[in-house]
Amino acid sequence: MGKTIETHKDWHEKLPFALYTYRTSVKTSTGAMSFSLAVLAIEVKIPSLRVLSELKSNEAEWIQSQYD
Q1: What angle do CA 18, 24, 27 make, to 5 degrees?
Q2: pTM check: above 0.85
Q3: How far is 26 from 38, CA to CA, in rounded Å?
Q4: Minimal CB count within 10 Å: which of 2, 11, 24, 44?
Q5: Considering the domain boundaries, does residue 54 fall inside one?
Q6: Number of domains the chain contains
Q7: Is residue 3 part of a domain?
Q8: Helix and strand tally (H, E) in the chain?
Q9: What is the DSSP string of 1-66?
Q10: Domain limits at 23?
């Protein structure tokens, strides 16, 4: 950030860009971006009826195969 500011008075104008860069950089300790850990922490998964019915039929087939 020190290289991007021209005077000591304009650092606040460059701060959002520096924070964005920091938050979207992959960290070696976590292997992920800070932004994705904080903002995209959950993935909403709404299965369709077709997917649910396939899962239940596959589960029933698997259970039946275990008894055979």
Answers
A1: 105
A2: no
A3: 13
A4: 44
A5: yes
A6: 1
A7: no
A8: 3, 0
A9: -TTT-SSTTSHHHHHHHHHHHHHTSBPTTTSSBHHHHHTS--------HHHHHHHHHHHHHHHHHH
A10: 9-67
33, 26 contact by CB (below 8 A)? yes
* In the chain, beta strands by DSSP E: none
Residue 52 tokens, joined: 């649910």
* DSSP assignment letter at 31: S
- Domain assignment present for residue 63? The answer is yes
Residues 6 or more apart whose CB falls under 8 angstroms from that of 26 comprise 32, 33
Whether 58 is covered by a domain: the verdict is yes
- Contact between residue 13 and residue 4 where contact means Cβ atoms under 8 Å apart: no
